[in-house]
Design a protein that fits this description.
424 residues; Rossmann fold; 5-stranded parallel sheet; 5-stranded antiparallel sheet; elongated; AS_cat/multimer_dom_body; argininosuccinate synthase activity; ligase; arginine biosynthesis
């Protein structure tokens, strides 16, 4: 009998999928639960439940260190925030899970892989494209996308087939979380006029109820990667976990985003990402010190492209490989220490220092010790404004002061106020 490897979370959808795949496709199901640091599940219980439902094998892989080293840190170095807001927690985990699915499929001699994504979300694209790139010979089965059962129908199916579930209670929200962040959607959140209630949040305290005492955290970076908190060096998993706790108790990391999904719809998403928000801000402030003007401005465009690429499921694309090489090169001088002030949901820059800082006090100061050559400015201004002055003398000569001022008036570019050339 042929085998399929199912990405198994232990929830309702994937639990029902074990039995459903067996019935519809007549395939043995091997489940794979990938630990990306969600910390909301008993993985051993999940493994045992998969076997009880009917899986021929149930595997659990701890990939938290790989997740940080090969996915989270490169995205942080890139400054990748989808549409400037979302730290891409779920999007970054999907290609890693897909990679493990393919590896297990090879090890088990499977001819297919399966996942529990719906037909209108982004995750189906991330899984399918990743698997197609890594192993185009493997068939992809997406039960939830195929069966179109409602939640009540799934619960009834589970009862009829004696499928053990953790809980059959109706959930108000759909939640996905991993080491880098927590995503919440559906229920009352689908109406953007509804303010999220406090029950939505688990990692962050209510900022309005925090004391009037700020907390300072010192973050040390090496080549754009955080390596220490408050002078204590630690591995990436520990650093992120500790920073989640520190920033979360100050209400930092809440994001309410109307985002543009890849499939063409707008979706209201709530995110909690305390560590990600703090680290992205601190990293950007350190780059302000260490990147040249041109490099910093170009990198903002790279960051946007990188964020889109990750969000759209193109992690294993040649473009990502090329952008990753640029990002790594851009980080060779991004080392130093940033101290942030955490206060009532806000991340405030307290200080920033780097041995490779391009900030030159002697050039920047207006006090004693100023070494800037003021007399050179006259020649610079003359050359910098040459083309504009030349245009003024040739094309704008003879215009009155009022006419010159009207050139910058909103009426000058209003569609209801045609230009003199159009009028003629």
């Amino acid at each position: 009998m042929q085998k399929v490897v199912l990405a198994y979370s232990g929830g309702l959808d994937t639990s029902v999928a074990i039995k459903w795949i067996k019935e519809k496709y007549d395939m043995d199901v091997v489940t794979l639960t990938v630990d990306v640091g969600a910390n909301d599940r008993d993985l051993e219980s999940i493994r045992k439940r998969a076997l009880e439902i009917g899986a021929v094998n149930a595997l659990v892989r701890d990939v938290k260190e790989e997740f940080v080293k090969y996915f989270i840190w490169p995205a942080l170095q890139a400054g990748a925030l989808y549409e400037g807001e979302y730290p891409l927690a779920t999007a970054l985990a999907r290609p890693l899970i897909a990679w493990n699915l393919v590896q297990v499929a090879r090890e088990e001699g499977a001819t297919a892989v399966a996942h529990g994504c719906t037909g209108k979300g982004n995750d189906q694209v991330r899984f399918d494209i990743s698997v197609n790139v890594l192993a185009p010979d493997l068939k992809i089965i997406a039960p939830v996308r195929e069966w179109r059962m409602t939640r009540d129908e799934e619960i009834e199916y589970a009862a009829q087939n004696n499928i053990p579930l953790l809980s059959v209670s109706q959930k108000r929200y759909s939640v996905d979380q991993n080491l880098w962040g927590r995503s919440i959607e559906a229920g009352p959140l689908e109406d953007p006029r509804n303010e999220p209630s406090e029950e939505v949040y688990e990692w962050t305290a209510n900022p309005d109820k925090q004391p009037d005492n700020a907390e300072y955290v010192e973050i040390q970076f090496e080549r754009g990667i955080p390596v220490a908190l408050n002078g204590e060096r630690m591995d990436g998993v520990t650093l992120i976990t500790k920073l989640h706790e520190i920033a979360g108790r100050h209400g930092i990391g809440r994001i309410d985003h109307i985002e543009n999904r890849l499939v063409g719809i707008k979706s209201r998403e709530i995110y909690e990402a305390p560590a990600a928000i703090v680290l992205h801000r601190a990293h950007r402030w350190l780059e302000d010190l260490t990147l040249t003007k041109d490099s910093a401005r170009f990198k903002t465009r790279v960051a946007a492209e990188y964020g889109d690429l990750v969000y759209n499921g193109l992690w294993f694309s040649p473009l990502h490989q090329d952008l990753a090489a640029y990002v790594a090169s851009s980080q060779r001088y991004v080392s130093g220490t940033v101290t942030v002030k955490l206060f009532k949901g806000n991340v405030i820059k307290a200080s920033c220092d780097s041995p490779k800082s391009l900030y030159n006090f002697a050039l920047a100061t207006y006090d004693k010790g100023d070494q800037f050559k003021h007399e050179a400015s006259v020649g610079f201004i003359n050359i910098f404004g040459l083309s504009l002055r030349n245009q003024s003398q040739i094309q704008l000569a003879g215009r009155t002061q009022g006419e010159m001022l009207s050139l910058a008036s909103p009426d000058a570019i209003s569609p209801d106020a045609p230009s003199e050339e159009v009028k003629k």
